[in-house]
Amino acid sequence: MENSLRSCFTVAFMVLLLSAGQLQKTEAQSRCDSVQLSWCLQSIVSNIPPSQDCCRRLRGQQACLCRETRDPTFGGYLRHPGARRVATACGVTFPRCD
After folding, report:
1. Which pLDDT tens digit goes with each residue over 10-36?
2. Which residues form the Bifunctional inhibitor/plant lipid transfer protein/seed storage helical domain (predicted)?
3. Would you say the pTM of this structure is higher than 0.85?
């Protein structure tokens, strides 16, 4: 009986862990906010170095950059050559988006 209870507890714990991992993935996806990239627009279209706020927000959106390149509002800016320059200055690896 004790082994059965222990097995049941172990299975329940594993299900909980797997669910938590899926929740974290969903939360990360919901954090994509193209408006955060507006802090970098001036640096993208000019030769002004990016601000610390721009870099912080760009790092926060790094996982979303491919998705954001398709955004009708900011996608054009992210496809601009200055976007890669700003990303490099901020230490952000700009992904190859297919």
Report:
1. 434 444 444 444 334 444 445 899 889
2. 35-97
3. no
